[in-house]
Amino acid sequence: MISVHGRKEDFPIFNKKINGKDIIYLDSTATTQKPRQVLDAITGYYEGYNANVHRSVYKLADEATEVYEQSRSNVANFIGAKDNEIIFTRNTTESLNLLSFTIGDSLRRGDRILITSMEHHSNILPWTRLEDRGVIVDYAGFDEEGHLDIGDLESKLKRETKIVSVTHQSNVLGTINPIDEIGKIVKENGSIFIIDAAQSIPHMPFRVRDEYDFVAFSGHKMLGPMGIGVLYGKYEQLDKMPPFNRGGEMIKDVDFHSVIFEDPPIKFEAGTPNVEGAVGLSAAIDYLKVIGMEEVRRHEKHLTSITLKGMEDLKSVTYYGPRNVEDRGGVIAFNVKDKTNVKRNLEKNNVKLDRLYHSHDIATFLDERNVYVRSGHHCAEPLMRSLGLSGTARASYYVYNGEDDVKIFLKSLGELDVQR
Predict the structure, then answer these.
(1) Contact at 8 Å (CB) between 85 and 235?
(2) Which of 125, 241, 379, 389 is labelled catalytic?
(3) Domain boundaries in the chain?
């Protein structure tokens, strides 16, 4: 069980103090801090068996290759996949772009792609680039509490819809979408189903299913280093796809005017791979396995529940997304009303209209108290426009956060409320 104080003792960064006070890090949705076990694994690679992989026959290179492929196996095991269905990329963004430039490029004028209005830019821009060739991108909406409108998704799923790409958990609303239900609907339509799992796989149990064609996620959001991502793909899909990049390692034979590519997943890993990143991600997975993903999820629900109750007690705070913690992850986007800045609207009988503090001002206020939250549109501008907002502040939790962090966060928000 995770302590009420979190697991900060494993994370060297929390030894750092600013103005004599502890760091309250509440931006794990953007990137997570790294435990000593991950840092040691990366150092161990460079000190013990640094060599290029898949290329040489000497012992050091053999050891590096073995550890790299063991990392692939560990990732596969973590989500219930086969080793040859795991491609190492730089991040979720590159994984989704890989799909856009392979299966996406096979689409023709009049074909359709269906995504949702709550997507991160990384699951919008790779698909909207295809609009230049006449591909149509549709968006499924959500209700006033942030739940995906399944009826709207079904109504927009057409015979011409070739790809459906959906976030498992919104990085703003925190909404956990019912991907199993969506997957069944998508497969009945004969479409390819892609899941952006950047915000879910690090925070809850996850196993691939027959309905999932592709799943993308990032190492740095689950205690691993930056620069390593994962794309899961059904082998039969990967086998018939063209490569994304071309260069060294990913070929069986090359002549001046012809090439035979390697089998997946090596076909998609051109050039020197991020061996350090794979080793660090594998160590991060080992760390999470010790805790147990069920416990990670339980812990975040507990902290989120306390936070939402505390925000509701602060009348000036508005948060977005589902009210039920069972329907959301440990990320909370919010705004604070600034009642010192009100307008008199003569057309509405001089009714005072509440205005919001700018999200950057909220984050700056909290920063002065060593409470670190994200602010802005969180790479989800279309979602913000749907909400009628220019941005929000956002707090997000992970295994190193505890009840003390929540109390300090809410106390700081209360001080902002008083300063109104």
Answers:
(1) yes
(2) 379
(3) 8-30+293-418, 38-290
